[in-house]
Specification:
- The protein is α+β, with helices and mostly antiparallel strands.
- 32% of the residues lie in helices and 29% in strands.
- The strands form 3 sheets. Strands 9, 10, 11, 12, 13, 14, 15, 16 and 17 form a 9-stranded mixed beta sheet that branches. The chain has a 6-stranded antiparallel beta sheet with strand order 2-1-8-5-3-4.
- It is globular and about 55 Å long.
- It starts with a strand and ends in a 9-residue tail after the last helix.
Protein backbone atom coordinates (compact mmCIF):
# COMPACT_ATOMS: atom_id res chain seq x y z
CA UNK A 1 0.00 0.00 0.00
CA UNK A 2 0.97 3.66 -0.48
CA UNK A 3 1.02 6.15 2.38
CA UNK A 4 0.64 9.89 1.81
CA UNK A 5 3.10 12.09 3.75
CA UNK A 6 3.32 15.81 3.00
CA UNK A 7 2.27 15.60 -0.67
CA UNK A 8 4.42 12.56 -1.44
CA UNK A 9 3.59 8.86 -1.59
CA UNK A 10 5.70 6.18 0.07
CA UNK A 11 5.39 2.41 0.12
CA UNK A 12 4.33 1.18 3.56
CA UNK A 13 7.80 -0.05 4.52
CA UNK A 14 9.35 3.32 3.59
CA UNK A 15 6.68 5.55 5.14
CA UNK A 16 8.42 7.24 8.07
CA UNK A 17 8.53 10.46 10.08
CA UNK A 18 11.24 11.72 12.41
CA UNK A 19 11.73 10.34 15.93
CA UNK A 20 11.81 14.02 16.95
CA UNK A 21 8.26 14.59 15.72
CA UNK A 22 6.08 16.02 18.51
CA UNK A 23 3.31 13.57 17.69
CA UNK A 24 5.70 10.74 18.59
CA UNK A 25 7.32 12.47 21.57
CA UNK A 26 4.29 14.09 23.21
CA UNK A 27 1.14 12.89 21.47
CA UNK A 28 0.94 16.41 20.01
CA UNK A 29 -1.17 15.31 17.07
CA UNK A 30 -4.76 14.91 15.97
CA UNK A 31 -6.55 12.56 13.60
CA UNK A 32 -9.76 11.88 11.72
CA UNK A 33 -11.13 8.50 10.71
CA UNK A 34 -13.60 8.15 7.87
CA UNK A 35 -15.01 5.60 5.47
CA UNK A 36 -15.26 5.34 1.71
CA UNK A 37 -18.17 3.57 0.01
CA UNK A 38 -17.50 2.64 -3.60
CA UNK A 39 -15.12 5.59 -3.98
CA UNK A 40 -17.34 8.07 -2.14
CA UNK A 41 -16.16 9.29 1.28
CA UNK A 42 -19.19 9.75 3.51
CA UNK A 43 -19.36 13.11 5.33
CA UNK A 44 -15.85 13.99 4.19
CA UNK A 45 -16.42 17.73 4.36
CA UNK A 46 -17.66 17.46 7.96
CA UNK A 47 -14.55 15.51 8.96
CA UNK A 48 -12.23 17.99 7.29
CA UNK A 49 -14.04 20.94 8.86
CA UNK A 50 -13.63 19.39 12.32
CA UNK A 51 -9.97 18.73 11.56
CA UNK A 52 -9.52 22.38 10.57
CA UNK A 53 -11.28 23.69 13.68
CA UNK A 54 -9.09 21.53 15.88
CA UNK A 55 -5.91 22.63 14.10
CA UNK A 56 -6.87 26.27 14.60
CA UNK A 57 -7.84 25.67 18.23
CA UNK A 58 -4.46 24.03 18.95
CA UNK A 59 -2.64 26.75 16.95
CA UNK A 60 -0.96 24.38 14.49
CA UNK A 61 0.93 26.21 11.75
CA UNK A 62 -1.03 24.27 9.11
CA UNK A 63 -0.89 25.74 5.61
CA UNK A 64 -3.17 23.53 3.51
CA UNK A 65 -6.72 24.56 2.66
CA UNK A 66 -9.70 22.29 3.31
CA UNK A 67 -10.13 21.61 -0.41
CA UNK A 68 -6.50 20.52 -0.64
CA UNK A 69 -6.91 18.09 2.25
CA UNK A 70 -9.96 16.55 0.56
CA UNK A 71 -7.98 16.24 -2.66
CA UNK A 72 -5.07 14.55 -0.84
CA UNK A 73 -7.47 11.98 0.61
CA UNK A 74 -9.08 11.11 -2.72
CA UNK A 75 -5.68 10.90 -4.40
CA UNK A 76 -4.53 8.44 -1.71
CA UNK A 77 -7.58 6.28 -2.36
CA UNK A 78 -6.88 6.37 -6.08
CA UNK A 79 -3.19 5.58 -5.64
CA UNK A 80 -4.12 2.48 -3.65
CA UNK A 81 -6.91 1.54 -6.07
CA UNK A 82 -9.41 1.43 -3.25
CA UNK A 83 -13.13 2.10 -3.35
CA UNK A 84 -14.39 0.62 -0.06
CA UNK A 85 -11.92 1.74 2.52
CA UNK A 86 -10.90 2.82 5.99
CA UNK A 87 -9.19 6.21 5.92
CA UNK A 88 -7.14 7.84 8.65
CA UNK A 89 -5.74 11.37 8.40
CA UNK A 90 -3.17 12.28 11.07
CA UNK A 91 -1.63 15.72 11.54
CA UNK A 92 1.29 16.20 13.93
CA UNK A 93 2.62 19.58 15.05
CA UNK A 94 6.03 18.79 13.53
CA UNK A 95 9.56 18.42 14.80
CA UNK A 96 10.68 21.77 16.22
CA UNK A 97 10.50 22.04 20.01
CA UNK A 98 11.78 24.06 22.90
CA UNK A 99 11.45 21.24 25.39
CA UNK A 100 7.76 20.55 25.81
CA UNK A 101 6.92 23.89 24.18
CA UNK A 102 6.46 23.95 20.40
CA UNK A 103 8.24 26.51 18.26
CA UNK A 104 6.04 28.84 16.23
CA UNK A 105 7.76 28.00 12.94
CA UNK A 106 7.30 24.24 13.35
CA UNK A 107 5.67 22.83 10.21
CA UNK A 108 3.07 20.08 10.76
CA UNK A 109 3.20 16.70 9.08
CA UNK A 110 0.09 15.28 7.41
CA UNK A 111 -0.12 11.52 7.00
CA UNK A 112 -2.93 9.68 5.22
CA UNK A 113 -3.35 5.92 5.56
CA UNK A 114 -5.96 3.86 3.72
CA UNK A 115 -6.82 0.18 3.72
CA UNK A 116 -9.56 -1.99 2.30
CA UNK A 117 -12.65 -2.06 4.51
CA UNK A 118 -16.12 -3.39 3.75
CA UNK A 119 -17.66 -2.99 7.18
CA UNK A 120 -18.27 -5.37 10.05
CA UNK A 121 -19.74 -8.83 9.56
CA UNK A 122 -23.54 -8.82 9.15
CA UNK A 123 -23.84 -10.91 12.31
CA UNK A 124 -22.91 -7.87 14.43
CA UNK A 125 -25.98 -6.04 13.15
CA UNK A 126 -28.28 -9.05 13.29
CA UNK A 127 -27.39 -10.18 16.82
CA UNK A 128 -25.94 -7.00 18.36
CA UNK A 129 -22.92 -6.66 20.65
CA UNK A 130 -22.30 -6.39 24.37
CA UNK A 131 -20.46 -3.56 26.12
CA UNK A 132 -18.90 -3.07 29.53
CA UNK A 133 -18.64 -0.03 31.81
CA UNK A 134 -15.21 1.45 32.52
CA UNK A 135 -13.92 2.36 35.97
CA UNK A 136 -12.21 5.36 34.38
CA UNK A 137 -14.23 8.57 34.48
CA UNK A 138 -14.44 11.22 31.75
CA UNK A 139 -13.68 14.82 32.74
CA UNK A 140 -16.66 17.09 31.86
CA UNK A 141 -14.58 20.19 32.61
CA UNK A 142 -11.74 19.58 30.15
CA UNK A 143 -11.22 22.11 27.37
CA UNK A 144 -10.00 19.25 25.16
CA UNK A 145 -13.39 17.52 24.81
CA UNK A 146 -13.58 18.54 21.15
CA UNK A 147 -10.03 17.45 20.28
CA UNK A 148 -9.63 14.10 18.53
CA UNK A 149 -6.12 13.61 19.82
CA UNK A 150 -3.75 10.69 19.25
CA UNK A 151 -3.23 10.73 23.02
CA UNK A 152 -5.85 8.07 23.90
CA UNK A 153 -4.19 5.73 26.39
CA UNK A 154 -7.29 5.76 28.64
CA UNK A 155 -9.35 4.51 25.72
CA UNK A 156 -6.81 1.89 24.69
CA UNK A 157 -6.33 0.33 28.11
CA UNK A 158 -10.04 0.45 28.98
CA UNK A 159 -11.10 -1.14 25.72
CA UNK A 160 -8.42 -3.82 25.94
CA UNK A 161 -9.67 -4.82 29.39
CA UNK A 162 -13.21 -5.00 28.04
CA UNK A 163 -12.17 -6.92 24.92
CA UNK A 164 -10.23 -9.46 26.97
CA UNK A 165 -13.45 -10.19 28.86
CA UNK A 166 -15.44 -10.71 25.68
CA UNK A 167 -17.00 -7.25 25.29
CA UNK A 168 -16.99 -5.36 22.00
CA UNK A 169 -16.77 -1.84 23.45
CA UNK A 170 -16.41 -0.04 26.77
CA UNK A 171 -18.61 2.85 27.92
CA UNK A 172 -17.34 5.68 30.12
CA UNK A 173 -19.25 7.62 32.75
CA UNK A 174 -18.03 11.10 33.63
CA UNK A 175 -16.83 12.28 37.05
CA UNK A 176 -20.39 13.46 37.84
CA UNK A 177 -21.71 9.94 37.37
CA UNK A 178 -23.47 10.58 34.06
CA UNK A 179 -23.16 8.49 30.90
CA UNK A 180 -20.53 9.81 28.48
CA UNK A 181 -19.20 7.85 25.48
CA UNK A 182 -17.41 4.73 24.28
CA UNK A 183 -13.69 4.37 23.68
CA UNK A 184 -14.22 4.79 19.92
CA UNK A 185 -17.93 5.53 19.73
CA UNK A 186 -20.85 7.70 20.78
CA UNK A 187 -23.74 6.27 22.77
CA UNK A 188 -27.49 6.34 22.01
CA UNK A 189 -30.46 4.65 23.70
CA UNK A 190 -34.24 4.67 23.56
CA UNK A 191 -36.31 5.27 26.68
CA UNK A 192 -39.94 4.86 25.66
CA UNK A 193 -40.02 6.54 22.23
CA UNK A 194 -37.36 9.19 22.91
CA UNK A 195 -33.81 8.78 21.64
CA UNK A 196 -31.27 9.95 24.22
CA UNK A 197 -27.58 10.68 23.79
CA UNK A 198 -25.18 12.30 26.26
CA UNK A 199 -24.66 16.04 25.66
CA UNK A 200 -21.31 17.47 24.57
CA UNK A 201 -21.08 19.11 28.01
CA UNK A 202 -20.69 15.65 29.56
CA UNK A 203 -17.11 15.67 28.26
CA UNK A 204 -17.51 13.71 25.03
CA UNK A 205 -16.10 14.12 21.55
CA UNK A 206 -18.75 15.62 19.23
CA UNK A 207 -18.79 12.74 16.76
CA UNK A 208 -19.52 13.40 13.08
CA UNK A 209 -21.69 10.27 12.86
CA UNK A 210 -23.36 11.25 16.15
CA UNK A 211 -24.38 14.60 14.67
CA UNK A 212 -25.65 12.97 11.49
CA UNK A 213 -27.72 10.38 13.39
CA UNK A 214 -29.32 13.10 15.52
CA UNK A 215 -30.31 15.07 12.40
CA UNK A 216 -31.56 11.95 10.62
CA UNK A 217 -33.63 10.81 13.62
CA UNK A 218 -35.27 14.23 13.86
CA UNK A 219 -36.06 14.12 10.14
CA UNK A 220 -37.77 10.77 10.77
CA UNK A 221 -39.91 12.46 13.46
CA UNK A 222 -38.13 10.65 16.28
CA UNK A 223 -37.86 12.75 19.43
CA UNK A 224 -34.20 13.27 20.33
CA UNK A 225 -32.80 14.64 23.57
CA UNK A 226 -29.15 15.39 24.38
CA UNK A 227 -29.45 14.98 28.11
CA UNK A 228 -27.44 13.75 31.10
CA UNK A 229 -28.56 10.30 32.13
CA UNK A 230 -27.39 7.73 34.68
CA UNK A 231 -26.30 4.14 34.19
CA UNK A 232 -29.66 2.94 35.56
CA UNK A 233 -31.33 4.68 32.60
CA UNK A 234 -29.16 2.71 30.20
CA UNK A 235 -30.13 -0.52 31.94
CA UNK A 236 -33.80 0.46 31.57
CA UNK A 237 -33.53 1.31 27.87
CA UNK A 238 -35.62 -0.57 25.31
CA UNK A 239 -32.87 -0.23 22.67
CA UNK A 240 -29.20 0.79 22.76
CA UNK A 241 -26.70 1.44 19.98
CA UNK A 242 -23.27 2.98 19.42
CA UNK A 243 -22.00 4.94 16.44
CA UNK A 244 -18.87 5.96 14.58
CA UNK A 245 -17.83 6.37 10.96
CA UNK A 246 -16.70 2.77 10.52
CA UNK A 247 -19.33 0.80 12.44
CA UNK A 248 -22.21 3.12 11.40
CA UNK A 249 -25.08 2.28 13.80
CA UNK A 250 -24.21 -0.81 15.82
CA UNK A 251 -26.88 -2.41 18.08
CA UNK A 252 -26.04 -3.17 21.72
CA UNK A 253 -28.02 -5.99 23.34
CA UNK A 254 -26.15 -6.35 26.62
CA UNK A 255 -24.49 -3.91 29.05
CA UNK A 256 -22.23 -5.76 31.48
CA UNK A 257 -24.47 -8.65 32.63
CA UNK A 258 -27.71 -6.73 32.02
CA UNK A 259 -29.66 -7.78 28.93
CA UNK A 260 -31.31 -4.86 27.13
CA UNK A 261 -35.07 -5.46 26.78
CA UNK A 262 -35.51 -8.92 25.22
CA UNK A 263 -31.89 -9.18 24.10
CA UNK A 264 -32.73 -8.72 20.43
CA UNK A 265 -31.93 -5.88 18.03
CA UNK A 266 -34.79 -3.38 18.26
CA UNK A 267 -36.98 -2.17 15.41
CA UNK A 268 -36.08 1.52 15.87
CA UNK A 269 -32.36 0.76 15.68
CA UNK A 270 -32.95 -1.30 12.53
CA UNK A 271 -34.94 1.56 11.03
CA UNK A 272 -32.21 4.11 11.75
CA UNK A 273 -29.54 1.84 10.26
CA UNK A 274 -31.67 1.30 7.15
CA UNK A 275 -32.10 5.03 6.58
CA UNK A 276 -28.45 5.73 7.40
CA UNK A 277 -27.33 3.37 4.64
CA UNK A 278 -30.02 4.66 2.31
CA UNK A 279 -28.72 8.20 2.87
CA UNK A 280 -25.21 7.08 1.94
CA UNK A 281 -26.53 5.76 -1.38
CA UNK A 282 -28.53 8.94 -2.04
CA UNK A 283 -25.57 11.22 -1.36
CA UNK A 284 -23.33 9.01 -3.48
CA UNK A 285 -25.75 9.23 -6.42
CA UNK A 286 -26.04 13.00 -5.94
CA UNK A 287 -22.25 13.36 -6.11
CA UNK A 288 -22.08 11.32 -9.32
CA UNK A 289 -24.76 13.51 -10.94
CA UNK A 290 -23.06 16.68 -9.74
CA UNK A 291 -19.73 15.58 -11.18
CA UNK A 292 -21.41 14.68 -14.46
CA UNK A 293 -22.83 18.16 -14.99
CA UNK A 294 -20.02 20.28 -13.56
CA UNK A 295 -17.36 20.97 -16.19
CA UNK A 296 -14.46 21.42 -13.80
CA UNK A 297 -14.47 18.52 -11.35
CA UNK A 298 -13.14 19.05 -7.87
CA UNK A 299 -11.59 15.60 -7.84
CA UNK A 300 -10.30 13.26 -10.50
CA UNK A 301 -12.84 10.50 -10.98
CA UNK A 302 -11.85 6.90 -10.51
Amino acid sequence: MWVFINQKFYKTERAKISVFDRGFLYGDAIFETMRAYNGYIFLLRKHVERLRKTLDFLEFNFLYKNEEIEDFIYKTLKRNKLKNAYIRVTVTRGEKSNGILPKKNSLPNIIIITKSFNGLDKEFYEKGVKVSISDVKRNPYTFLYNVKSTNILENIISRKKAYDKGFYEVIFLNSKGYLAEGSVSNLFFFLNDTLFTPPISSGILPGITREFVIEMAKALKIKVEEKNKKLEDLFSAKEVFITNSLIEILPVVKVEEKTIADGKVGSLTRELLYFYRKKIEEMKEWLVLQNFYVVKLQYQKF
